[in-house]
Design a protein that fits this description.
The structure is a single chain. Helix 3 packs antiparallel against helix 4, helix 4 runs antiparallel to helix 5 and helix 5 runs antiparallel to helix 6. The chain is 63% helix and 0% strand. The relative contact order is 0.10. The protein starts with 9 loop residues before the first helix and ends with a helix. The chain is mainly alpha-helical.
């Protein structure tokens, strides 16, 4: 036995090809990522090129776009924004972002509580 020969007609091959390629189509994501991933990468890879002010501005733009599309922000987004606010001395906004991260992603509670505890120290 030489194996099972696969012979399909031209229409069948086109249909199979279309089915395979349609599976590769971009699927919509659950979250609105915006520039978040690029900003995090840039802040670690090239720290001087991503000052906190610039990051906050871009993240706030992304947040407005996400709200208009009715999509939530991804895990870590509010925590990152909170850290940026903290660096800028905006502690009330930082605290609010940490609370939002904790509320939206309960698995971050321990870490967010540690960050929030810094506000309680004298």
């Amino acid at each position: 036995m030489d194996g099972f020969p696969l012979r399909f007609s031209r229409p069948a091959r086109l249909l199979i090809g279309a089915a395979l390629f349609s599976g590769c189509a971009a699927t919509p994501t659950l979250y609105s990522w915006g520039q978040y991933e690029d900003l995090v990468y840039q802040s670690y890879a090239k720290p001087g090129e991503a000052p906190p002010e610039k990051q906050v501005e871009k993240l706030e733009e992304d947040y407005q776009k996400a709200r208009s599309a009715d999509k939530p922000m991804p895990p870590g987004w509010h925590a990152h924004l909170g850290c940026l606010y903290y660096q800028l001395g905006k502690t009330d906004q930082a605290r609010q972002e940490f609370q939002t991260e904790k509320a939206n992603f309960p698995e971050s509670t321990v870490f967010m509580n540690r960050l929030l505890a810094r506000f309680e120290r004298p």
